[in-house]
Amino acid sequence: MRITSTIATLAAAKLVASQALNDSNPDDALWGATSPPYYPSPWVDETTEGWETAIRKAKEFVGQLTLLEKVNLTTGVGWEGGPCVGNVGAIPRLGFPALCLQDSPTGIRFTDYNSAFTSGGTSAASWDRKVWYDRGYGMGEETRDKGIDVLLAPVVGPLGRSPAGGRNWEGFSPDPYLSGVAVAESVKGVQDAGVIACTKHYILNEQEHFRQGPESRGFGFNITDSISSNVDDKTLHELYLWPFADAVRAGTGSIMCSYNQINNTYGCENSALLNGILKGELGFQGFVVSDWGAQHSGVFSAFAGLDMTMPGDTTFSSGYAFWGPNLTLAVTNSTIPEWRIDDMATRIMAAYYFVGREKNYVETNFNSWTTQTEGWENAIGNKNWGVVNKHVDVRREHAKQIRDAGARSTVLLKNNGVLPLTGKEKFTAVFGSDAGDSLYGPNGCSDRGCTNGTLAVGWGSGTSAFPYLISPLTAIANEVLSNGGIIQGITDDYAYSQIAALASQASHALVFVNSDSGEGYISFDGNIGDRNNLTVWHAGETLIQNVTAVNNNTIVVIHSVGPVELGAFVDNENVTAIVWAGLPGQESGNSLTDVLYGRVNPGGKLPFTIGKSREDYGTDLLYTPNNGEDAPQDNFNEGVFIDYRSFDKNGIEPVYEFGFGLSYTNFSYSNLKITKHPNVPAYAPNNATNAFAPSLNSTPVSTDLADYQFPDDIDRVPLFIYPYLNSTSANASYGDSQASEPYAAADTSSYIPEGSQDGTAQWKNRHPAGGAPGGNPRLYDVLFTVTATVTNTGGVVGDEVAQLYVALGGPDDPLYQLRGFDRLYDVQPGQSVTFGADLTRRDLSSWDTVKGDWVITDYEKKVFVGKSSRKLELEGALDL
Ligand SMILES: *[C@@H]1O[C@H](CO)[C@@H](O)[C@H](O)[C@H]1NC(C)=O
Ligand SMILES: *[C@@H]1O[C@H](CO)[C@@H](O)[C@H](O)[C@H]1NC(C)=O
Ligand SMILES: *[C@@H]1O[C@H](CO)[C@@H](O)[C@H](O)[C@H]1NC(C)=O
Ligand SMILES: *[C@@H]1O[C@H](CO)[C@@H](O)[C@H](O)[C@H]1NC(C)=O
Ligand SMILES: *[C@@H]1O[C@H](CO)[C@@H](O)[C@H](O)[C@H]1NC(C)=O
Ligand SMILES: *[C@@H]1O[C@H](CO)[C@@H](O)[C@H](O)[C@H]1NC(C)=O
Ligand SMILES: *[C@@H]1O[C@H](CO)[C@@H](O)[C@H](O)[C@H]1NC(C)=O
Ligand SMILES: *[C@@H]1O[C@H](CO)[C@@H](O)[C@H](O)[C@H]1NC(C)=O
Ligand SMILES: *[C@@H]1O[C@H](CO)[C@@H](O)[C@H](O)[C@H]1NC(C)=O
Ligand SMILES: *[C@@H]1O[C@H](CO)[C@@H](O)[C@H](O)[C@H]1NC(C)=O
């Protein structure tokens, strides 16, 4: 989603061009790849396990609706048309309020008295299912209490193909398995609180540059269309689709289609991905909503499987819509069959009932477009003044949970024994702007689009307003002062003489550095969403150098959106500890001091690899258009080999590997046991057919356009998108100065694809790898259980994240792939506990592009258990 465009300096863009490491070129097999058509769009299946009641209720509800009411459910009312970032029309006849959709994956955006949670990518470092569930549930509660129906979270796209990707921090991890577990727990948490989760962005939305044509043009890039992520089927299934399958299996009520193109078709009109894979193969029963402005066609996107358009207008606040009146017309003129709009509405209502919205309704009590109590209800047209913000405090006890999540997600990278601190240090000095408060306050920059003071979240629509932000300096000062100690801080990164003077006096120096990124509509310091580099900002390395030159006990704390290059300081003997604290949210300083002062023994592990340089990752972003003014081509040539899989394949030594993290104690691993489950049913491709598209017996669609005119009693809001027609002439209702094609164009082949109108029983929508939400249920059969003994060999109680990796053995398989983990809580000194993980058929399968299905290959398969992706103490063979 975007609001405004800040113009970047072109000089910065040019500078980056010379560093571009993306290897896409016209000789690649993937260059100019296309997506095959897949029609018709699968309709809901009332027999889907877990969804039966929700779908039945939805059908009953939609059966009562008129065409105009169905159009209202599917179409946003326009940017700034209602209180939320996205609102559809209401159904006043049935007393059904307008649905409200709101950001973000770190809490509620554009309101007050809400919490600012730990970011997804940071919470991933906890490797803790409870952290993810509680975080989702907490956000769900706040969302519900503000009167929001759909929370635009969680994120698994971007997955994190390249470390500089601007929005990676909103998602979890470049490992699909870790992301898959995290997204499933998050979806369950959010939805158990009674609101609909919207898992996003589907799919391959791996960079900010060129994600949208108009935005890119605003930054001076002369391109007509969004970037195309081109990918083969194996990579799609084994890597990028994997966590989406987990989200669908966990019951996500909606999925957001992305800005980018995939194989040169836009995400929100890609029938192969929406109809074929999401609704067909993955059996998704909820609704697909467009990212804000990601819809590029009316009829065509409807056939491709889009169910709701956001924010509803063609461009923000234009007053025109691909759907709205156009959808009314397209159904009345029989272009779009009634079953398709019925299915859109049914999917929306199925999600609604699936999470129990009817029992959890709260009237929307805030307005995104003002923080004042009074304002316009419809900012789009400056209409309906009144009380719009009730300032409801929805935070509950979430502060504790956020503090806990932040501490559990902190990763100790280096420790020469200086940590934990006691609070009785003789002289504590703190350095760096990242330790202190922002001069502008925690919310001083719109959508956190700057970095001033401590970094606790990235920028863009993935933010929520901080109720407060505990800076590290504040929390450390509390700690030291409660022990009667000495503490001084310098938060000017460049005051070198004062820094040297203070550092030389201190017994303990804590240096804070950071690295920020965000969403592509904001450019900060020349970073157009994506990071231009992986080094720390504000001359952080020089700052560290200045301190270490005169202080032999320097502790470095990093707040960052992802991996950073640790440069020379990682090996500096005066750097006695390094802590990665990620983006902790509002309790930042408290979470950190819990770890620094030993109240929490660090148990977090890196959810990504920290390499020596960005080149070592083997994948990178495209910073300059590579296809003239046509859509830039981003070829995912590396296949499934990103992050640690790439380091492993290319034999590159990372600085800190995926899964790495130290503790104040030590753990040993022993006693690997592999138990094969008997009598597991064989894999059987799904071959069911589905029934005819349902007829809901709703009011017959009239073809008389007089029936769809604006009612007299409506006080029209300017620019607001309604379902009504402006005229009894179809041509006049359709037309506006922007219409690119005449109404009822002679050639319909481009937007009415073959088979798209066919509502007869289908066999092909039941994919062999399909059959249930998340795919073929046989994929989730447990074939093996692996156990190992984990012993705390150190002196203090601690958590250990035990990790299981598999080697599937084929030439195209990664050396190791994560396939199980568990955070073992509170293991006492000397205590041994059992780590256990189930291996499902899916965990051991590879995607066969010829069969178009999962297979377990004949190659020898192994399992490994250990404390990181490179400390795999135990090894065993799987007897298949
Ligand atoms: C994308 O194109 C590649 C290369 O032609 C093809 O293998 C793959 O199946 C396509 N995938 C989709 C979803 O269109
Ligand atoms: C459609 O939604 C708008 C905005 O909520 C509302 O004013 C209108 O009455 C609705 N139309 C119908 C037919 O329900
Ligand atoms: C964009 O490229 C096209 C074709 O090369 C050219 O006609 C047009 O003037 C360019 N626009 C800008 C703003 O550079
Ligand atoms: C924060 O803003 C102040 C005032 O503009 C500026 O002097 C300072 O350098 C900024 N800090 C950082 C870290 O950018
Ligand atoms: C990396 O980017 C940051 C933020 O834009 C900038 O301050 C820093 O100078 C850059 N580092 C290098 C080595 O160019
Ligand atoms: C401190 O930083 C300044 C500015 O870059 C640099 O000139 C100086 O050499 C640094 N001092 C040390 C000891 O690294
Ligand atoms: C480490 O700190 C001491 C001061 O305690 C200093 O003499 C020494 O040069 C420093 N070493 C490095 C590598 O900076
Ligand atoms: C730092 O230097 C002081 C003075 O030489 C010494 O007492 C202390 O043990 C050193 N600390 C570390 C962590 O090496
Ligand atoms: C109908 O859709 C076309 C694009 O397909 C658009 O140009 C036109 O403005 C839309 N009409 C209305 C009334 O929004
Ligand atoms: C039906 O309406 C849609 C939406 O306005 C339009 O794109 C299409 O051309 C129309 N088709 C016919 C045959 O009138």
UniProtKB/TrEMBL annotation:
Residues of the Fibronectin type III-like domain: 800-869
Chain segments carrying region Disordered: 745-774
Coiled-coil region list: none
UniProt pathway: Glycan metabolism; cellulose degradation
Ranges annotated as biased composition (Polar residues): 747-763
Keywords for this protein: Carbohydrate metabolism, Glycoprotein, Glycosidase, Hydrolase, Polysaccharide degradation, Signal
Top enzyme class: hydrolase
Catalytic activity entry: Hydrolysis of terminal, non-reducing beta-D-glucosyl residues with release of beta-D-glucose
Name recorded for this polypeptide: beta-glucosidase
Source taxonomy: Eukaryota, Fungi, Dikarya, Ascomycota, Pezizomycotina
Leader sequence residues: 1-20
Family, similarity comment: Belongs to the glycosyl hydrolase 3 family.
Organism for this UniProt entry: Phyllosticta citribraziliensis
